[in-house]
Amino acid sequence: MSLLTNLNSPIGKKLVTGITGLGLTIFVLMHMIGNLSMFSGDDAYNEYAHFLASLGPLLYAVEAGLVLFFLAHAVNGVKIWMGKRKARPQGYAVYKSAGGPSMQSSSSRSMIITGIILLVFTVFHLISFKFGSGGPGNADAAYLTTIDGVEMRDLAKLVREKFALPWYTIGYTAIMLLLVTHLRHGIWSALQSLGAMRPSLSPAVYTIGGLLGLGIGLGFIVMPLALFFGWL
Amino acid sequence: MANSMNITLKVWRQAGPDVKGGFETYQVPDANAHMSFLELLDVLNEQLIKEGNDPVEFDHDCREGICGSCGVVIDGVAHGPQKRTACCQLHMRHYRDGDTIVIEPWRAEGFPIIKDLVVDRSAFDRIIASGGYISANTGAAQDANSLPIAKADADLAMDYATCIGCGACVAACPNASASLFTAAKIAQLSLLPQGDPERKTRVKSMVDQMAEEGFGDCSNHAECEAVCPKGISISSISRMRREYVKAMTD
To answer: Helix, strand, or coil here: B147?
Structure first.
């Protein structure tokens, strides 16, 4: 069996989607925890960002992995969605979920939409922050700060500027709520895709997955809102 | 009669496989709360025949919920509103006088419509033929007792073996995936020693055949389990995936 053929099979696609999905969940969880360093002050936030940037080759390796995970996750998601249209060319006049053990929800049905929005957002987000003022290829002396004698990027300043804008803060909050929606079905679904589910654990895992998704989303939202309302 | 009902049916009519179909509305004034859903269709067909019209084609056989022949989508739910029930065992007492019911065939590329509500489910036979069997000679009845199998495994294998191949899982799946049907057989045989010789080739062949037949991919909506007349758990799909990974890494 060639590995590539296997990964393109109905089960292979689920394995790739599940593994990359869990990887990306761990990434957003770490990212969210990192963001919370803003609550310890701008210096703590800048030092954390500087620490990541100073990892050099290790950071590039992680970034390359993330790009690969994002793309593999998105490509498979789109493939599964396109396959669905091919597998049922004519839809039902009336269609309802039977409820009960069904996990079908607004979350599970909208994975393709929330997923595409999140992917577009990620590109926009990288342009705003990583490659924004003071970032790589966008050197700006106004976005430098010196902490304990070390000169580093003043990312906190950029973050404060962005989240002073109402449309930016509202848009960011809305997209993080879409992330919650995506993770509500996604975390449980990834574990089921990897064959890691026992029927007795399924409802508990679904609840824990949903709560983890909610926690990640709220964790992302709380800092921008605190900045916007001037609590921070 | 107290139990008599007047039911309006919107039924999908399609003269043949490649003909355009559409809904027809019929009144069944002689429906009765004691009828099964298929008996309601029988009454409708008597009416149509008397009027000189073509009766509605629908599949059925045992009408006891165990053969897997019947199956239509009733008001958007495969086999209708009652859990763990094939539509032959759904009774009109779950409806009220004056109700309108929409009936459609299973809709999937892998289940082409033959006529009206009848679809061609031979794709399922081909999936089974590709690997859903054992080559071990299981001997006569007494030989079964010489091969001890843990009760928990035997019970679970039996749960997966209850699949009647009706196709409701495909019909209800938003992606028209046949994962539950395929997984039920793979999971059943993976739990028993008799299934061992073909263990690795089975999962690969059956999964390939499932894709070949034009069924979609699973998105873990679990809608299949909710409509399955036998309540087969999607844990079978988990198990199929584990079997696949084992076969892959071999």
So the answer is: coil
Interface of B with A in 122-181 (CB under 8 A): 172, 174-177, 179
Q: Which residues in chain B have their CB less than 8 angstroms from residue A11's CB? A: 207, 240-241, 244
Q: Where are the alpha helices (DSSP H) in B22-140?
A: 37-50, 122-129
**Which chain B residues in 21-60 lie under 8 Å from chain A, judged by CB atoms?**
23
More confident residue, B139 or A16: A16
CA distance B69 to A147: 75
The superfamily CATH assigns to domain B4-115 is Beta-grasp domain (3.10.20.30)
Partner-chain contact A14 B218, CB within 8 Å:
yes
- Per-residue model confidence as pLDDT tens digits over A136-180: 999 999 999 999 999 999 999 999 999 999 999 999 999 999 999
| Beta carbons of B104 and A1 less than 8 Å apart | no
Q: Which pLDDT tens digit goes with each residue over A101-111?
A: 999 999 999 99
Report whether pLDDT(A1) > 70.
no
Torsion, CA A142, CA A148, CA A152, CA A156, rounded to 10 = -70
CB contact under 8 A, A88 and B108: yes
- Secondary-structure breakdown of chain A: helix, strand, coil percentages, each rounded to the nearest 5: 70, 5, 25
Encode pLDDT of A125-148 as tens digits: 999 999 999 999 999 999 999 999
- pLDDT for A200 equals 82
In DSSP terms, B22 is beta-bridged to B13
Selection from B186, B166, B183, B189 nearest residue B217 by Cα: B183
Interface check A15 vs B, CB under 8 A: yes
A58 has a pLDDT exceeding 90: yes
- Best residue of B104, B223, B250 to probe chain A, by most A CBs closer than 10 Å: B223
Task: Decide: residue B45, CB within 10 A, 0-12 exposed, 13-18 middle, 19+ buried.
Answer: middle
CB of A195 less than 8 A from some CB of B: yes
Could you say which residues of chain B have pLDDT below 50? Answer: none
CA B211-B127-B216 angle, 5° bins: 25
A3-85+109-228 maps to CATH 3.30.870 = no
Going from N- to C-terminal start, the domains of chain A cover 3-85+109-228
Chosen CATH of B121-248 out of 3.30.1330.40, 1.10.1060.10, 1.20.1250.20, 2.30.29.170: 1.10.1060.10
Cα of A61 to nearest chain B Cα, Å? 26
State the pTM of this model: 0.95
Q: State ipTM.
A: 0.94
* Residue B67 CB neighbours (<10 A): 16
